[in-house]
Structure formats: C-alpha cells, structure tokens
TrEMBL record:
ATP binds at residues 58, 437-444. This is Myosin IIIB. Pfam families: Myosin_head, Pkinase. Keywords: Actin-binding, ATP-binding, Cell projection, Cytoplasm, Cytoskeleton, Motor protein, Myosin, Nucleotide-binding, Repeat. GO terms for cellular component: filopodium tip; myosin complex; photoreceptor inner segment; stereocilium tip.
Length: 1158
C-alpha cells in the first residue's frame, strides 16, 4: 500500500475523456505567454507550429482535477463549436508527465476584442454608450448561438456579458459551457440551481428550495434579458446588493427594467420585458425572439453592424481603456570552545550502549549545559531551545553543512536542511521538513534557519530573490504571531512554506499556505497575552512618525483592541524602541518583497480602521414601543472607522445596529441590541483582519512565483521541485482552554499521527510484506483519539457542527450532547465543574471551557456588513470582500476570468464556500453554509495532502523549561515531552530498523557506478545489488523480496561515494575531451600538409623497384626537388602550428623523418 492511498488520497479519474486517445500538444502548439488564470489551471496564448496561427489554451493541471464541469464543456465544444457564434474548438490534447500526473490542453479560438461587459464599461467611463443597432446586433448574434445550443438540447445556464466575447473583426462568440446541461428525450427539464446570482432566472433560484421544481432552456432567455440591461446600463439589476440578497430579491421583485427607459426606444424596452417574464411557461423561446422587431433591425445589416462594432473595438483598444479594465470584476568560527566542529559518538542517541529514559535525559542535559542544543536520533533531529542567541548560524557555518557526510559535523538544523536539499537534487523527489513541539519550543526560529540555509544552498540567480524569500517569514509572522502566556512570539496560524527549485537545485521561488488563523485574538486576548504583533508595530511606528492623526488613531490612550490592564502598551510605545524598529523592518519587508506604496498604505488604513472599529461603543435606545434598539454614542470613532474604510458613516452605523431579513417576499428591518451590535462590530473586525492576512499571503505568493525566464509555466508544474517547511502552532494547555486550543491540539494530534505512521506503522508493515526479520516496537497509537475528533457522524467536530445548526442550542446542550455520544476513555466530563470537558491527548490531559464554542464555530458575519464593505472606494477592501475564500479559508485571488484587449480566456465557474455564506457576483456556487470546524477539517486534509507527497524529515523541538531561562534544564518537563513525542521508541526503531527501502531495480540503476564501469549497463538483479553493497564495504544491510533495506547512515555513505565517483568521471571526461580535441587537430593538419608525400613515399618506391629500375634515379631526383620546394612552405606552416598547439617535439621528429627519406 502506498503512502498516498494509506491516507485516503484517491484521485478522481475522468470517465468521459479518453486520455489514451488524445494527442500530445508539443507537436502542434508552442506557448507564447500567459494570458490568464482559472480554477483548473492557466490560460496561455499559443502559436501553431505549422501555419503560425494563434489560439488560446486552457491547461488543466493536474489531470486529477478533471470533473463534470470540464467534461461538459469538452463534450459541448467538440460537438457544437461549428457555429459562427460559438467559440471555435481546436481540440483537446494530453501532455503526459510522470511527475505532475499529466496535463489536459483545451485549445480554443483566441478572441481579441474582450467581453461585451468590458466594452460597455469602457464606453461609460468616457460618458458614451452603445448605440441601439449595435446592441441589437450583439443580442441577435447571441440569440443565434443560443438557438444552435437549444436545437441540440443544450442549456447554457450562465449567459452574461462576461461570457459573450468579441473578435477584432466584430464577431460575437458564446463561451464557458462548464455548467451547461444536456437535455434528453427522457429529461427535458433540469432542477439544479446553478448560475451567476444577478443573471439567474427565478425558476432556477426556486430549485434550491423546491426540490420538485424544474426549468427548461428558457432560463437562458431571462439571463439574456439581464444581459441586455447590462449592455445599456453597464451593470445588471441589483448589482449594488450582496449576491445572497439578490437571490432573495429576484423571485419576489417585479421584473427589472432599464434604469432610464426614456433614453431608449420602446422596442428595446419591450424586448427586455419579453425576456424577463417571470412565468417561464409564458416566456418566449429563443426562436421567437429572433423575430422580435428590435432584433429584426439587425437582419440583413449584420455585415455593416459587424464593421461598426469592429471599428468601436479598435477605437477602444487604441485608447487603452479596455486594457485598464482587465482586473475589474463584479480577482565556526571564532566561537565558544564548546562549539567545535568535530563530531563525536554522543551526537546520536542511537549510538548509546545503554538506553533508558534516565540515560537519555542525562545525555541531553550534558549536551545542553555545553550549549550543544542539537542531538540526533538516527535521521531525526532533537532541538532544545537555548533561550539565547548562539553564534552557530553564520555564513561560515552554512558552508560547513553543504553536501558533506553528516558524521563529519556536529548535529545542526543546517544538516537537516542540507539532507532535504540533497535528497531533492539526488532523487528528484519533493521533500518535507516537519517541525513539531510545544508552544515556545523554538519551532518558528527553526523554520527561519531552515529557510536561511536552503536559500544559501539554492544559490538564487539574483540577490533580490534571496532577500525576498528571507523576508517572507518576518512579514507573515508580524501579522500571524502574537505574545502568549508561554511564548513571546507564538504562531497563531499554521504555515506551510514551499521553496521552489530547478532540477539542478537553484532556488527560483516560494509559496506559502496558511491555515487556521486565530482571528478571535483581534477582539479579545486572555490575561497576560497580547494582540497580533502588527497592531503594536503600526501604532508605535505612526506615533514616532507623527502620523496618528492621518490614520485617525487616538493619541492619549491606545485603542481598546490593544489596550490591556496587565500590559503597559503606551509606555512601551513611547519610551521603547522595539516596536518602532519592528515597524521599520516591516516597511522594509514590504518594499523588498515587491508591495506597491499604494498597497502598503491600504494595508495600514485597514489595520487602523480595525483599531478604530474596536473603539465604537453602543448604547440602548428606550422608547414606548421598542427597547432593544441601539445607537453609537461616540460618533468620532464611527466616523474614523468609516473614513479609513472609505464608506459612509451612516451606512456603517446602520449595518452595525440593524439587519435586513427577507421573509415571504417582504423585507424586514430588525434592530440590534447593544450586545448584538457589539457582536457584529467584532465580527466585522475579525473578517477584515482574516481576509487582509490571506490577501497578504496571496500577494506574497504572486511576487515570489518562479521567473518566467528561468522556468516557463509549462515546466513549472512538472520540473520544479519543492522543499516544504511546516511551522504550525504547538500543543497548548493553558489555565483556560477554549475552542482555539481544541483546534490547535487536534492539528497536533494529526501531526503526531503522521509521525507515528512514518516512523513506526509504515516501517513495520514494510518489514512484514518483504519478509524482513525485525522486532516490532511498541508505540502509542493516537488513531482512536483522532477518530473521536474527526469521524462522521459521531465525532466531536461533527457533533459540534450539528449543534451549531440549531438556533436554540446553548453551550450546555452542547456539553450534554458530547456526554451522551462520546463514550470512550479519552473523553470525560468533570464533576462539579460546569460547561467543561476533558480530553486525554497524546501530550497529556487538557480541560476545555465550552463557553463560546457554538458562537466561535458559527463565526457569523452579517450580509449587511459585507454589502457595505463592498461599496468601499478602497480597491483593496473591495477585493477582500468580492473574492471568495477556499475550503481552507484562504483568499482566492486568481479565480476570476481575465479578459483583456487581444486576449481570450475561458471563464471557469468555481464552486467555493465562504465563512460568511457569501457568493461573488461573478461566481457560480452551491448555496451551503460552512462552520469553522468544517473549514478546520478541510485544512487538515489540505495540509496532509501536501505533506505525504514528499520525503519527510523530522525536527522535534523541546522546551527545556517553562520560564524561558537560558541554560536551565528541567528534567521533568523534558521527560514529559520525550515521552509523548515517542523519542524513546524512535531511538529503538532507528537502532534496530532500516529507514530506507529501495527496489533492486532502482538501487542498481542509481548506484551501479560504484561497482561497474560507466559504459556497462548491469542487470537490475539482487546479485548486482549485493555486488554494489559489498564494493561499498557496507555492513548490516538486509535484502527483502524486492527491496534493499538500509540504515539511515548507509544511504548517506552511498550518496557520498556516488558524488565522488561522478566528480572523478567528470574530471576524466574533461581531460579526455581536451586530449582528443588536440589530437584531432594535429592529425587534420598533418593530413592536409603531408598526406600526399607520405603516400607517394610508400607506394611509389615499391612500384618503381618492381617495374622501372632504370628510371628510378631520375624519378627520385625529380621527387626530391618537388619535396624540397614543398618543405620550405611546410616549415613556415609548422612554425605557426607549433605556436597554436605547442607540439614542438612532433615537428622536430617529423623534420628528421623527412631528411632521412631524402
């Protein structure tokens, strides 16, 4: 069983697309440039190798991402793209690749005019509009395309301006058939609620709630009517609303009309009214609409109108307006004597003669007292936090840990980074470094050092890239780390950093994935803890720059979100330099990574707005009929927050103090109580910070993606290799543990399970299947605990989600549900303690306070807040609340279809769930609501899927004491951590076991240079594998049925020998090639100058002696004369040749030889 299948990662395989029947695109198409990104892959401009024509290709990478939407589009394009108003389909291709799993290439017509939406918006920016005949022509062409589809029983289901593209010749093309439906004789209607909210027909929306309802092809007619209004007004009706609200309004409101009907002819308004008849049974079909008077005015004039449209497109492209709208969417040295560079047997616990807990503890304490903070357990590194700066991380130390045998140097974090790097380059396989340990054990700093060393090993082509990568961690940690009771720089989110390398090992980029940001810290912190670092940095930085007023921040007292009775915030800001220095460092990080000044200013404004929002207070308004209404008494804080968010204060106050509910077609305004308004305020602050954090991570990824000149996009997925570094919050057990600690500890349970599987379970399974005799090691399997948390439907998280769906549920009913269903030894309810439960984690017992569990899991953000924030004039803020979040609550920036002048991209409908059950106006989505627990489950799956594809390397961080004191070693605390992390069992299995198992074929192909000549290709047999092992003088290896079993140090020795052999071969090849080149040059010269003389000297003398002895003397005299004449010229040429090839000896010998002949 492979590791991938062990974790249940089963790839989806297409049942409709026969990959084996698709051709390779490499023979027909060359990629020119990237022109856009979609959900399933990127879109490129390509050139046909045969005729030079251009097209657009959507690369679906990896192939496992193929699903029903792609199959639907493929089948429709393959069958129906032969219509002038449907985008042309040039074919589907399959590019096989063993590393990435292959790519599907969907090659389509390149539409250079952009979408009709872009055209109308560019005109409106210039106070112009489309003329009615042109609108008639566009709608006429779209109707013809839809008629072609409907006649073939296809419903488009996503007709809108962005899916009607234009060519520079004025052609009108329908695109994007990802959610199209195929009707059959047995099924003439459909009942799936899909589409883009503002364009969806009432009957399609109704299918979401009324499962017995259905619709036919005339839903496309409604969408075309909305598109007609879009062509006139620039936006669809209700565009100013939140899309969820729009879905409520469309079935209940009267049919929409033009914004200013008096500016348009009656025929146009009548056409729209016919398209927007709410009863679809009475709505005309596409065929009937083609005979409508407004449409008939385009009959017979299509050529002239086409030319008029082409001229309009050309005019807009020359002005450059369309291009500006492409992103618009409704996207050792001199150290202490103890730090000597020598290795000793004590470096590895596996080498200890006597092994028990006390021996290991004493050994670690002795090394720690000597500032030897690193120790090996086989190929696993133990890192004890020194709680002080050490001088063992300089560039000189980096040079020591570069491609050398591990035993040559003492244990070091750089050695682990080097092992991962060498493994990637040698075996062409992704690597993963998992850093684990308690909070405060030094995981974040270890991750910093690994990135530092990998950047050194990767030798980036330019210094700028190195600086960018090295400054990613400080920037992200300023926003994602905070001071807790046990750690001054605690990670409050999970971070997986992937460093990208070429096959030769050069670093070319990086990518971050972030998980489970603790957003609740923004609004409230436990006693003795602080908010995220960035809030203190920015307040101190602006204070010392005298810019607090510019960002409307109070000067006398700190904002409520960062104020604390136990922390002297203002004193630290005014008199201390730390916060100011950190602010300056963050500004430098922003600049070096590549953020623009406008982006940085927007970030500061949003952060300042969050701080001002926290200062907004609420007071109750009591009247005769209403006692639950609230208002904002401190309008200054409200106005400051609204100003920084670029929205109106009245709208913000209304969204905070009331909510809009649609019931039975009526809109009801409900006022919020003081407590409810405060909850809405805090929810808005959390949402602002969470989305801003995700945007920063996404922006970093875009700025650190591989250079197109170094690694082209088609090579990016298949040839680039990764080293991933996991830095996730450690196990936590505070005096009061809440929902956040539960999620953190479940994540740590999952990481511990992965460690157990890799170190113990998988190894023992392999021994048994290969018939290798190895004693089994007892270890604590935490799978039952994970099952208790994650299984469905009776796991703790599932029960939490179930209770969260009941409006009347309380924290007490949640505890009761847990007690009734979680009957196992790992869970208990303490007596005489209300609203608490206990969990026996792998790291120990933890008590959880259930207060607030349900509310934190729901994490509700009212739609009114989203609507208000989307009206902001701040472009970044608009983007934060217009783009959806992925299932792991990460910002999805590159999901929208991109159109620009001269470019065609395929619009992809994406199904995305967001925390606030909100949908983007340009998105087709399912209407489901997710909880924090659901997103947490998706995050664990996503994280594990990234980890299992690479070869793992483990770093176990240990906290020697709880007081963060240097050189203080608490045996009891260290013992506890060694026990629950399985270090003792790891020592046993690394001493007895075999960490590397390699197939005979792979082993012989990889290492045959060590026992055979380079030109030989030995048979990949067990015997040849044994010959290699014996020639390498290795001991204690074992042969299985199909594999060689090696200890961790065997592979290191083999790789070192292999590098030495290859280095010698390279030198020998260089010398040989040089010698052969010089030899060929000399021979060629000799052949040209004296070949004729030598041949005649040998053959002529023999012939004359046999037949013409009388004339021999005469002939020799003549030949001597000729030779002497030639010799003069030859001497001159020899001198020149001697200078060039420095072969004076050969010239001397050749001269003597000539004189002897004559």
């Amino acid at each position: 069983m492979s590791r991938r299948s062990l974790y249940g990662l089963y790839p989806y395989k297409s049942s409709m697309i026969g990959l084996e029947n698709l051709g390779d695109p490499s023979g027909n198409w060359d990629i020119v440039e990237t022109i856009g990104k979609g959900t399933y892959g990127k879109v490129y401009r390509v050139t046909n190798k045969k005729d030079g024509s251009q097209a657009a290709v959507k690369v679906l990478d990896p192939i496992n991402d193929v699903d029903e939407e792609i199959e639907a589009e493929y089948n429709i394009l393959r069958s129906l793209s032969n219509h002038p108003n449907v985008v042309k389909f040039y074919g589907m291709f399959y590019k096989s690749d063993n590393l990435s799993g292959g790519q599907l290439w969907l090659v389509l017509e390149l539409c250079n005019g952009g979408s009709v939406t872009e055209l109308i918006k560019s005109l409106l920016m210039r106070s112009q509009r489309l003329q009615e005949p042109v609108i008639s022509y566009i709608l006429y062409s779209a109707l013809l395309g839809l008629q072609h589809l409907h006649n073939n029983r296809i419903i488009h289901r996503d007709v809108k301006g962005n899916n009607i593209l234009l060519t520079t010749e004025g052609g009108v093309k329908l695109v994007d058939f990802g959610v199209s439906a195929q009707l059959t004789s047995a099924r003439l209607r459909r009942n799936t609620s899909v589409g883009t909210p503002f364009w969806m027909a009432p009957e399609v929306i109704a299918c979401e709630q009324q499962y017995d309802y259905s619709y036919d092809a005339r839903c496309d007619v409604w969408s075309l009517g909305i598109t007609a209004i879009e062509l006139a007004d620039g936006d669809p009706p209700l565009a100013e609303m939140h899309p969820v609200k729009a879905l409520f309004k469309i079935p209940r409101n009267p049919s929409p009309t033009l914004r200013n009907p008096e500016q348009w002819c009656r025929s146009f308004s009548y056409f729209i009214s016919q398209c927007l008849i709410k009863d679809f049974e009475a709505r005309p079909s596409v065929t009937h609409l083609l005979e409508h008077p407004f449409i008939k005015q385009a009959h017979g004039k299509d050529v002239a109108l086409r030319q008029q449209l082409a001229a309009l497109i050309q005019e807009q492209q020359e002005i450059g307006i369309i291009m500006s709208l492409t992103s618009y969417r409704h996207e050792r040295i001199n150290t202490r004597k103890t730090l000597i560079i020598q290795s000793c047997p004590d470096d590895d616990l596996v080498n200890l003669e006597f092994l028990d807990e006390e021996t290991i503890i004493c050994h670690l304490q002795k090394r720690y007292d000597e500032l030897q903070v690193y120790t090996y357990v086989g190929d696993i590194l133990i890192a004890l936090n020194p709680f002080q700066n050490l001088s063992i991380y300089s560039p000189q130390f980096s040079k020591l840990y570069h491609g050398v045998k591990r035993a040559d140097n003492p244990p070091h974090i750089f050695a682990t980074a080097d092992a991962a790097y060498q493994g990637m380059v040698t075996f062409c396989k992704d690597q993963c470094i998992i850093i684990s340990g308690e909070s405060g054990a030094g995981k974040t700093e270890s991750a910093h050092l690994i990135v530092q060393h990998l950047t050194f090993l990767g030798k980036a082509n330019n210094r700028s890239l190195r600086e960018k990568i090295l400054q990613v961690n400080p920037l992200v940690e300023a926003f994602g780390n905070a001071c807790t009771a046990i750690n001054d720089n605690s990670s409050r989110f999970g971070k997986y950093l992937e460093m990208k390398f070429t096959p030769t090992g050069a670093v070319i980029g990086a990518k971050i994935s972030e998980y489970l940001l603790e957003k609740s810290r923004v609004i409230k912190q436990a006693v003795g803890e602080k908010n995220f670092h960035i809030f203190y940095y920015i307040y101190a930085g602006l204070y010392h720059q005298n810019k607090l007023k510019a960002y409307r921040l109070p000067e006398g007292t700190p904002p409520r979100y960062i104020d604390s009775e136990n922390c002297k915030v203002m004193q630290d800001i005014v008199s201390g330099k730390l916060y100011k220095e950190q602010f300056d460092a963050i500004q430098e990080c922003f600049r070096n990574i590549g953020f623009t000044e406008e982006e940085v200013n927007s970030v500061y404004r949003i952060l300042s707005a969050i701080l001002n929002t926290g200062n907004i207070e609420f007071a109750a308004i009591t009247s005769q009929h209403q006692t639950d209404k609230s208002e904002v008494p401190n309008s200054e804080a409200l106005e400051s927050a609204a100003s920084l968010l670029s929205i109106g204060p009245e709208e913000l106050q209304e969204a905070l103090t009331s909510q809009c509910v649609v019931t039975r077609g009526e809109t009801i305004i409900r006022t919020n109580t003081v407590d409810k308004a405060a909850d809405v305020r805090d929810a808005m602050s959390k949402a602002l910070y969470g989305r801003l954090f995700s945007w920063i991570v996404n922006r970093i990824n875009s700025l650190l993606q591989p250079d197109m000149n170094i690694c082209s996009d088609d090579l990016y997925g298949s040839l680039c290799m990764n080293v991933g570094i996991l830095d996730i919050f450690g196990f936590e057990n505070f005096k009061k543990n809440s929902f956040e600690q539960l999620c953190i500890n479940i994540a740590n349970e999952q990481i511990q399970f992965y460690f157990n599987q890799h170190i113990f379970a998988l190894e023992q399974m392999e021994y048994q299947s290969e018939g290798v005799d190895a004693s089994l090691v007892e270890y604590e399997d935490n799978r039952p605990i994970l099952d208790m948390f994650l299984q469905k439907p009776m796991g703790l998280l599932s029960l939490l989600d179930e209770e969260s769906r009941f409006p009347q549920a309380t924290d007490q009913t949640l505890v009761d549900k847990f007690e009734d269903n979680l009957r196992c030894k790992y869970f208990w309810i303490p007596k005489r303690v209300e609203l608490c439960f206990g969990i026996q984690h792998y790291a120990g017992k933890v008590m959880y306070d259930v207060n607030g569990f349900l509310e934190k899991n729901r994490d509700t953000l009212p739609a009114d807040i989203v609507v208000v924030l989307r009206t902001s004039e701040n472009k970044l803020l608009q983007q934060l609340f217009s783009s959806p979040l992925t299932k792991t609550v990460m910002f999805l920036a590159c999901v929208w279809p991109v159109h620009r002048c001269g470019v065609f991209t395929v619009n992809v409908c994406v199904q995305v769930d967001t925390m606030e059950m909100m949908r983007h106006p340009e998105e087709t989505t399912n209407m489901r609501r997710q909880t924090v627990a659901s997103y947490f489950r998706y995050s664990l799956m996503d994280l594990l899927s990234k980890m299992v594809v690479g070869q793992p390397h483990f770093v176990r961080c240990i906290k020697p004491n709880d007081d963060r004191q240097a050189l203080r070693f608490c045996k009891e605390r260290v013992m506890v951590q060694l026990r629950y992390t399985g270090i003792l069992e790891t020592v046993n299995i690394r001493r007895q076991g075999y960490s590397h198992r390699i197939l005979f074929e792979e082993f012989v192909n990889r290492y045959y240079y060590l026992a055979f000549r380079a030109h030989q290709m030995p048979e990949t047999s067990k015997e040849n594998a044994v010959a290699i092992l014996q020639r390498a003088k290795l001991e204690d290896w074992v042969l299985g049925k199909t594999k060689v079993f090696l200890k961790y140090y065997h592979v290191e020795q083999l790789n070192l020998l292999l590098r030495e052999v290859i280095a010698r071969v390279v030198v020998m090849q260089a010398y040989t090639k040089g010698w052969l080149g010089a030899r060929r040059y000399r021979k060629e010269k000799e052949k040209r100058s004296h070949g004729a003389i030598i041949i005649q000297s040998g053959t002529g003398r023999s012939a004359i002696s046999r037949t013409h002895t009388v004339s021999l003397s005469c002939f020799l005299a003549w030949r001597g004369y000729v030779a002497r004449q030639n010799l003069k010229q030859t001497k001159k040429e020899r001198e020149e040749a001697a200078v060039r090839i420095q072969s004076g000896k050969e010239n001397f010998m050749f001269s003597n030889e000539v004189h002897l002949i004559f």
